[in-house]
Amino acid sequence: MFPFDARGLDSVKYTKTALVCGAGGFIGTHLVRRLKSEGYWVRGIDLKQPEFGASEANDFIQADLRNPHIVENAFNVHLDEVYQLAADMGGAGFIFTGDNDAHIMHNSALINLNVLEACHQNDTKRIFYSSSACIYPEHNQLDPDNPLCSEDSAYPANPDSEYGWEKLFSERLYLSYARNYNMNVRIARFHNIFGESGTWQGGREKAPAALCRKIALADADGTIEIWGDGMQTRSFLHVNECIEGILRLTRSDWTGPVNIGSEEMVTINGLAAIIMQIANKKVRIKHIPGPLGVRGRNSDNRLIQKRLGWSPSRPLKEGIRATYDWITSRIMEQAS
Predict the structure, then answer these.
(1) How far is Cα 53 from Cα 50, in angstroms, rounded to an integer?
(2) Same structural domain, 105 and 214
(3) What pLDDT sits at residue 90?
(4) Is the C-alpha dihedral spanning 295, 160, 238, 336 positive or negative?
(5) Is 129 a catalytic residue?
(6) How many CB atoms lie within 10 A of CB 217?
(7) Residue 262 burial by Cβ neighbours in a 10 Å radius (0-12, 13-18, 19+)
(8) 242: containing domain
(9) Whole-number Cα distances in Å, 213 to 29, 65, 105, 210, 325
(10) 153 and 249 fall within a common domain
(11) Is residue 220 part of a domain?
């Protein structure tokens, strides 16, 4: 007897059915909401509930995807699509210290092995896998003004973290299953996804959320800390555009891997300046030692534009404004 709830699946006409692995996470929460809005019956599964409110999934399973029996049981209904977003990850303070490497490699690899094998055993033909820009070679990202992150630059492989190595291994895992078992696999390499309902404190938050929090909490003439000299470059993509890219890729006839990211590159100091402008504050920056990752990274969107006829285009400032407003509302809630 399967312990999971599929009530309503037969009594209501749904467009399709989908399983979102990692549905309690930031991107997964937004993906569930989008699929539901399109008439899908959605099952979500994650080790944890969504951080900021209940999941909108028709059926949410709080369970450990490292357990193959849990994953197998999650396939007790027909699933048209599977979205595999689950991973052990966080921002630079989690990935680049070296303290979490074994957990990152072991946990994420187990999740991917279990989910992919369950898809194979249950003849689920279409599966999306979220890889990362962290797979790109460190030696191609030493110049902050001219990083090389085209999809064909991934080999010879030399990621700068164990997180990147695990993602690259898993890409090959998914492509192997696609070749051997005739599965429609879709792979995207995410570039720094941010937005509302993302982790903004506690150590796993990423740069946009961390800086929004620091600036929101700072006095008008106060000081915030930034790791390194702040001249390292990145691009940041709002979660709504990420979801659009996921669905366009999944519904296409092309496997990938492909970048899903913004081409609007900015220094970390420049990102802080954008947030200060939004906050109408001019705070001082104190640069301190800390984990940094590569010196420069930016999405190369030529391939996604060629293959899908689309690429992200929302200006960074728009997404940052929405994120800053959301984080300030969370701060006010905590203070009340």
Answers:
(1) 6
(2) no
(3) 74
(4) negative
(5) no
(6) 14
(7) buried
(8) 17-194+237-260
(9) 21, 31, 29, 5, 10
(10) yes
(11) yes
CB of 111 closer than 8 Å to CB of 66: yes
Q: How high is the pLDDT of residue 2?
A: 46
- Tell me if 194 sits within 8 A of 209, measured CB to CB: yes
pTM above 0.90? yes
Sole residue written with tokens 């569930």:
32
Question: Letter for the amino acid at 37?
Answer: S
* Residue 39, H or E segment: none
Q: Say how far apart CA 284 and CA 108 lie, in whole Å.
A: 38
Residue 183's identity, in one-letter code, is M
pLDDT of residue 1: 34
CATH classification of the domain holding 215: 3.90.25.10
**Using CA atoms, how far apart are residues 215 and 237, in angstroms rounded to an integer?**
20
- Give the model confidence (pLDDT) of 149-178 as tens digits: 999 999 999 999 999 999 999 999 999 999
Low-confidence residues of the chain, pLDDT below 70? 1-12
Which residue's entry shows tokens 């092309």? 254
How many other CB atoms are found less than 10 A from the CB of residue 13? 7
Q: Do residue 60 and residue 156 come from a single domain?
A: yes
pLDDT (0 to 100) of residue 3: 52
SS3 of 60, please? strand
Q: How many domains does the chain contain in total?
A: 2
User: Which of 40, 83, 129, 163 does the annotation list as catalytic?
Assistant: 163
Please check whether residue 7 is in contact with residue 28, taking contact to mean a CB–CB distance below 8 angstroms: no
136 shares its domain with 37: yes
Peptide bond between residue 156 and the one before it cis (omega within 30 degrees of 0): yes
> Do 122 and 72 belong to one domain?
yes
Phi-psi map region of 39: left, alpha, beta (phi>0 left; psi -120 to 50 alpha): left
In a domain, 302, yes or no: no
Is residue 152 located within the same domain as residue 128? yes
Contact residues for 306 (Cβ-Cβ < 8 A; gap 6+): none
